[in-house]
Amino acid sequence: MSKAEKTKEYIVEKTAPIFNKKGFAGTSLSDMTEATGLTKGSIYGNFANKDEVALASFDYNLRKMRTYINAEEDKAKTVKEKLMIRTKLFGKERPIAYPEGGCPLLNTGPEADDTHPALKARVADAIESWKQRTIRMIEEGISNKEISPDTNPGQAALTIISMIQGAIFVARTTGKREYGESVMEVTRKYIQSL
């Protein structure tokens, strides 16, 4: 890896938690220079603008989250156990290691919806990827008779995703983890019912 590549990686590693906590609009150049210890010139010598840093930071946070979740899903023995991994966010068994600041999809999506088309597209792609991975799991479960053949994989995948993201949103917005756990409990029952 060249020195320039190492510097870019360092900038992303140090700014990713800030973008994930404060969002695109809330993250200032001062935040970036303070976190990295670099000058404005050093940051913009490696990235054309704040947009590029934000996109690279989102990708970094998403990759970090996916790597952990995929590894946990790969350890599960059944399809339903794989589908349950993301529902354990609030329980005593917390296999989810979200990047600092929480879920990058939930943190980035609402802000980017009206303000940053490129970030919005990245979040949409990430949700679509999650949906496709979930559909493949459900189809595997139907194939091995673990899941009812009457299940619509696309509909079930979107329902699971919406329930999980909704649980996180409600818990974080209200500050009441028990609300999130309540929704996750219903999500687990839904997965068991498939």
UniProtKB/TrEMBL annotation:
Pfam families: TetR_C_13 (PF16925), TetR_N (PF00440)
Organism domain of life: Bacteria
Gene3D superfamilies hit by this protein: Tetracycline Repressor, domain 2 (1.10.357.10)
Keywords (A to Z) from UniProt: DNA-binding, Transcription, Transcription regulation
SUPFAM superfamilies referenced in this protein's UniProt entry, alphabetically: Homeodomain-like, Tetracyclin repressor-like, C-terminal domain
InterPro entries (UniProt xref): Homeodomain-like_sf, HTH_TetR, Tet_transcr_reg_TetR-rel_C_sf, TetR_C
Residue ranges of domain HTH tetR-type in the record: 5-65
DNA-binding region(s), chain positions: 28-47
Protein name, entry field: TetR/AcrR family transcriptional regulator
Source species: Chitinophaga filiformis (Myxococcus filiformis)
